[in-house]
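Reminder to self: tokens first, then the designed residues, so the page reads top to bottom the way the pipeline ran.
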């Protein structure tokens, strides 16, 4: 289903040094999911492809990549011109080193690759949705077990919660 571009301005915020753009409720409601939605478009005319992450309150936000922030000289409080639409093709997520090591050591890379790109993003959101290293290691083990059994997505987690631990608390994006 094709989506039209959404053009708007919004104030950039910084939470614990992470520069982000909160989407208005109106923009967020126009997205095809309450969970993560991959977006593409531009900020001040510079291209961006990034996930619109759920904020845990029914809306979304986008983390501004450092390279884009530097190139466009973006700072908290700026109100850049933004043009976004849901991406037709999701980019491959970057695998965290600890998970890659276990997948490789367990011979599960082929099973990982058999998941859809969106499914791989969901696995990684579930893995990062904890600030506890023991829980993370347990989730990596569970993910490997599920992949071994042919499962292609994690289950039983709130896909509409914020899973970026350094800027959220109890699944809800913090205020600046």
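Designed residues (176 positions):
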């Amino acid at each position: 289903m094709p989506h039209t571009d959404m053009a708007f301005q919004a104030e950039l915020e910084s939470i614990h040094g992470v520069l982000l753009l909160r989407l208005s409720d109106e923009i967020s409601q126009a997205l095809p999911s309450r969970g993560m939605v991959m977006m593409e478009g531009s900020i001040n005319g510079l291209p961006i492809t990034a996930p619109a992450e759920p904020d845990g309150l029914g809306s979304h936000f986008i983390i501004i990549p450092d390279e884009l922030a530097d190139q466009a000289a973006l700072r908290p409080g700026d109100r850049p011109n933004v043009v976004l639409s849901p991406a037709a093709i999701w980019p491959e997520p970057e695998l965290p080193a600890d998970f890659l090591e276990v997948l490789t050591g367990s011979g599960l890379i082929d099973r990982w690759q058999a998941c859809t790109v969106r499914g791989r993003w969901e696995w990684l959101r579930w893995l990062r949705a904890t600030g506890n290293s023991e829980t993370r290691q347990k989730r990596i083990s569970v993910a490997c077990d599920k992949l071994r059994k042919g499962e292609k997505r994690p289950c039983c987690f709130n896909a509409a919660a914020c899973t970026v631990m350094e800027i959220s608390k109890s699944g809800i994006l913090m205020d600046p």
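The mean pLDDT is 95.
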